[in-house]
Design goal:
The chain is of the alpha+beta class and 440 residues long. It folds into three domains: 194 residues, no CATH class; 84 residues, Pdz3 Domain, CATH 2.30.42; 80 residues, Pdz3 Domain (Roll). The chain is built from twelve helices and 18 strands. The longest helix has 31 residues.
């Protein structure tokens, strides 16, 4: 139920802001707005303003602003009503193309601006940040076959400098390495008091090909899956596993590595610390076909801290985050076109509802952050040059400005059909993805 409520709040805010952008710029340029609708289909609620009909409709998956004289982009040759609409200075037809472009652009623009405001609001309220980001760069795990393993980085190495510059914590290290993408970096390591210098080639894109090191994460249980061996054995959220069959466990990754050595179904003994008490727990791991290994059905607890910023710094952070996500969105779209990113990663209304519901349960800041993230995506996706989207209209208007004449009405009609077909197919596909995820 909370997912449905969160989804309706989120989608209501995003649609209202988007359509308000179109509405405001239309009124700014003197265009008469006939209908302002949140949602499609039959209206649930409607009221008449001075000249605009405002309504909330049944299907909450979009909205529209109906402007006077919007039905055609070419001058009518017959029909008194059409001619009147074209010649009326308050008609959308009568406006110069640069004003039409700004009216179309305003919707996505308002979504992008909303994203910055909501990111800033979340930063002012306080966001949860992984605690390890402010801790020294002590390597908890080196992923097999990774760049880090190849150059000789080992668990419990402490990275103290990059290219001669001292590194205090994981956040500084992440930024320093990110600045060295596709280049070599000299890493200074403290290994049990011994100074070791390694030369590492940083991958071109560390989001796709990470260095292969992870921080020290205590073997504390964050979640226990329902019906899992862990639940049956009585393990609880917050329990810390300190030994596995008598062998000390220093981190979550050591626990995972030890579990990976199990090749048959047999009982194991875990030494658990709970509320200051230490006691043994016997549990029999079950084989997971998808992961192709034996599992307990637990996930780690990630310790977090609440980080707050002042007004000015919050907006600086918000702009920085928006830029970062803009690059990420571009890479995803590019990857979808080139085939590097699977279409199966796309989510539809069900995925958004689940995502927004989880965010709302986490807290107000997380919910605002999630709305901002979706708003940013909505803004950029609407700017894609696909007919029936704002970007499609902008593309047509730009072409008309270049050729200095309107495109044929038939051409626009066919482009609209193509646009509807593309969006309809995409919607069916993402909903199918959602259903398959839900079923699995």
């Amino acid at each position: 139920m909370i997912s449905v409520i969160a989804f309706l709040i989120m989608i209501g805010i995003l649609i209202t802001i988007h359509e308000f952008g179109h509405f405001l710029f239309a009124r700014l340029f003197g265009v008469k707005v006939e209908v302002f609708s949140i949602g499609f289909g039959p209206p649930l609620i409607k009221w008449k303003g001075k000249e605009t009909l405002y309504q909330i409709a049944v299907i909450p998956l979009g909205g529209y602003v109906k402007m006077y004289g919007e039905d055609s982009m070419t001058e009518p040759v017959q029909g008194e009503v059409d001619k009147a609409a074209f010649e009326d200075p308050r008609s959308f037809y009568a406006k110069p193309r640069w004003q039409k472009i700004l009216i179309a652009f305003a919707g996505p623009l308002f979504n992008i601006v909303l994203a910055v405001i909501l990111f800033a609001s979340a930063y002012m309220i306080g966001i949860h940040e992984p605690k390890y980001l402010k801790e020294p760069v002590v390597v908890g795990y080196v992923h097999p076959g990774s760049v880090a393993e190849k150059v000789g980085i080992k668990p419990y190495d402490r990275i103290v400098a990059v290219d001669g510059k001292p590194i205090k914590n994981w956040k500084e290290f992440t930024i320093a390495i990110g600045m060295k993408a596709a280049k070599s970096a000299v890493i200074e390591i403290d290994r049990n008091g011994e100074k070791i210098v390694l030369n590492i080639q940083v991958p071109h894109d560390i989001t796709k090909e990470p260095l292969g090191i992870s921080p020290v994460i205590p073997a504390k249980i964050g979640q226990v899956m329902k019906g899992s061996p862990a639940e049956k054995a009585g393990l609880q959220k917050g329990d810390e596993i300190i030994a596995f069959n008598g062998k000390p466990v220093r981190s979550w990754f050591e626990l995972v590595d030890t579990l990976s050595t199990i090749k048959e179904k047999k009982e194991i003994t875990l030494l658990v610390r709970r509320d200051g008490k230490v006691f043994p727990v016997k549990v029999t791991p079950e084989f997971n076909k998808e992961l192709n290994k034996y599992v307990l059905g637990i996930s780690p607890k990630m310790d977090t801290t609440i980080v707050k910023y002042g007004f000015t710094e919050s907006f600086e952070k918000a702009i920085e985050k928006s830029k970062e996500l803009t690059v990420a969105i571009y890479n995803v779209i590019k990857g979808l076109i080139t085939g590097e990113v699977s279409l199966k990663t796309l989510g539809g209304p069900i995925a958004i509802a689940q995502f927004s519901g989880q965010a709302l349960e986490t807290g107000l800041a997380a919910f605002l952050f999630s709305i901002a993230f979706i708003s940013l995506q909505l803004g950029y996706l609407n700017l894609l040059p696909i007919p029936v989207l704002d970007g499609g209209l902008i593309a047509i208007l730009l072409i008309e400005m270049i050729i200095r004449r309107p495109l044929p009405e038939k051409a626009k009609e066919y482009l609209a059909y193509i646009g509807f077909a593309l969006l309809g197919t995409l919607m069916i596909f993402v909903i199918f993805n959602d259903i398959m995820r839900a079923l699995s």
